[in-house]
Structure formats: structure tokens, C-alpha cells
Write a structure and sequence with these properties.
Elements (H helix, E strand, L loop, with lengths): L11 E4 L2 E4 L10 H5 L2 E3 L2 E4 L2 E2 L2 H14 L8 H14 L5 E9 L13 E8 L7 H6 L1 E5 L21 H12 L4 E5 L5 E4 L3 E6 L2 E4 L9 H12 L3 E4 L12 E6 L3 E8 L2 E2 L4 H14 L9
Parallel strand pairs: 8-9, 8-15, 12-13
Antiparallel strand pairs: 1-2, 1-7, 3-6, 4-5, 4-6, 6-7, 9-10, 11-12, 11-14, 14-15, 15-16
Helix pairs in contact: 2-3, 6-7
Length: about 300
């Protein structure tokens, strides 16, 4: 399969209130966000013509910007509509949507008092984040070199571009070593998340997942907690030590891109995708596509 550069495609990108031809949607090289990471973004999916939990994503985008001390010059309702318009303009019914807000190029210094805030929304066809067959077997993860920062060192609850630098480095290192992704710890040494997804562990009728004091409280994460409870699982949100992984039977990741992805391996620990992870993967598939729910076993 040939690689198609993301910037060299046909289509339209919504940018500051108007549609710009895909290849012309550009920012200046002296943009503050490029130099200092002053940007926030969202990842959303449209299924069969409807963007899943669109307003929750737009609300989080606005909140992320506020945590970085800037205000997006559009309301949540306007951002919602722009996302829908971008999908319609590009003719998509099933796609990935990327809203991005950033500080502009009026001022290149640590201070950004005079920088204009911009918003762009792009959408494109994007299949499963992980290979479909690999998902059924469970993907392989290694341990990340870098830890998630402490809450008093960075705005950890913002989906901020700068916080993903160590995620990029960790995922690329994992792929180079033959793994699909990497699992990150927090600054205290507790299990945190994968490079772009939250993590869950299954022990009997309990599903355990880390607290979100140092990571993003994923919209898919919250959805899966509800789905798990509907299946009769007790969801336990707590600090999880890495050595505890030997006590869990199943593991899975959740995220807009990852959706629900079973895990078979994290470093020296092994898991077998079973009723919980595969059942919840099917529940999520049906939910986002508005299909009837299968009966739980």
C-alpha cells in the first residue's frame, strides 16, 4: 500500500470560518504553536453520517484551550456545525475529524500576548488505527521510555499538542522494535495510558482502569465504563502498579482512533482477549453505528 502524504490531497479544510483548498491550508513558519507547542486539538469519528459525541469533543477542545490560557473565537455550537460542514463539503459519511486551535505568528517569543487564535477542521477517510486481524488477536505493547508528567508540571487534562511529543517518540520506538504501541507510566510509576489511548484490565467480573489525575479522561473511556457497567462488570478506577499486571486476564485500549482494541502483551505480561474485551469491542461497534446491541453472554 503506497503512502499518500496527508498535505497532498484533494478536498477542503475549514479554516477560520471559511473553506480553503486542502493543499492551501497553511500556517506561517513563525507560528507560535510550532515553536512553543501552544495548540490544542481533538480526534473525532463520523460513523454513517453522524459524528460520535460531537458536542463532548467540541466542549473539550474549548476547555483544553482555556487550560492553555487562550480562548477559541467560536462557540461550541459553531465548532459542532463547522465539523459537520467539513464532512459534508468533503463528501464523507465515515471519516476521522481533526479540529485544531493554535496561537498564530504575530509574535514569536515565550509570551504570546499579541497572537491571534486560529481554528481549523480537517477530515479524511481513516480505517482502524490498528490492523483489524491484529485487534482480534490482541496487539503487542512494550514499555515507554518516558513517563506522563505530574499535574503540577504541565496542563495534563488538556489535549495539548505539546504533551504528545513523548507519545510520538514512544510509539515510534515501539514500532521500530516490532510492537504496535507502548504503555506509559505516570510520574509516580503507576500505569497511565498508551501513547494515544486509555487502558483497561479485566479480572473476573471486575474491570480496572487508572485514575485520570495525570492523563486525559478520554471520551471513549467514559463510554466504555458505561458499556461495561451495562454488561454487569464492576468498574474500579484506581492506581495500578506495573507488577499487578500478572493478576489480570484481559487488557484492552480505548480511544477515538483505537476504538476498543484488545491487548495480548505488555512487556513481560501476557493477556488473552476474551468475553470482556471482545464483547465490549462489539458493543462499541454497534453503539457508534446505531445498531441493535447483541445479547451479553
Amino acid at each position: 500500500m503506497s503512502f499518500v502524504p496527508i498535505d497532498d490531497r484533494d478536498g477542503w479544510i475549514w479554516m477560520d470560518g471559511e473553506f480553503v483548498p486542502w493543499r492551501e491550508a497553511k500556517a506561517h513558519v513563525l507560528t507560535h504553536a510550532l515553536h512553543y507547542g501552544s495548540a490544542v486539538f481533538e480526534g473525532e469519528r463520523m460513523y454513517d453520517g453522524e459524528i460520535f459525541k460531537l458536542t463532548e469533543h467540541s466542549e473539550r477542545l474549548v476547555k483544553s484551550a482555556e487550560l492553555l490560557d487562550f480562548k477559541i473565537p467560536y462557540s461550541v455550537a459553531e465548532i459542532d456545525q463547522a465539523c459537520k460542514d467539513a464532512c459534508e463539503r468533503n463528501g464523507f459519511k465515515d471519516c476521522y475529524i481533526r479540529p485544531l486551535a493554535w496561537r498564530g505568528s504575530e509574535q514569536v517569543s515565550v509570551s504570546a500576548t499579541h497572537s491571534t487564535i486560529h481554528l481549523a477542521i480537517a477530515c479524511w477517510e481513516w480505517p482502524s488505527y490498528f490492523d483489524a486481524e491484529a485487534k482480534k488477536r490482541g496487539i503487542r505493547l512494550t514499555w515507554a521510555k518516558y513517563a506522563r508528567p505530574a499535574p503540577n508540571t504541565a496542563p495534563v487534562n488538556s489535549k495539548a499538542a505539546g504533551l504528545y511529543m513523548i507519545c510520538t517518540m514512544s510509539k515510534m520506538a515501539a514500532e521500530e522494535a516490532g510492537y504496535a504501541d507502548a504503555l506509559m507510566l505516570d510520574w509516580r510509576g503507576y500505569v497511565a495510558e498508551a501513547t494515544g489511548a486509555n487502558v483497561f484490565f479485566v479480572k473476573g467480573k471486575e474491570i480496572h482502569t487508572p485514575k485520570v489525575d495525570a492523563i486525559l479522561n478520554g471520551i471513549t473511556r467514559l463510554t466504555l465504563i458505561d458499556l461495561a457497567k451495562e454488561r454487569g462488570y464492576e468498574v474500579v478506577v484506581r492506581d495500578i502498579k506495573p507488577e499487578e499486571l500478572s493478576s489480570f486476564q484481559e487488557c484492552f485500549l480505548t480511544g477515538t482512533a483505537a476504538e476498543v482494541t484488545p491487548v495480548s502483551e505488555i512487556g513481560e505480561y501476557r493477556f488473552t482477549p476474551g468475553a470482556a474485551s471482545l464483547g465490549l469491542m462489539d458493543d462499541y461497534f454497534r453503539l457508534v453505528r446505531r445498531l441493535p446491541r447483541a445479547e451479553a453472554a
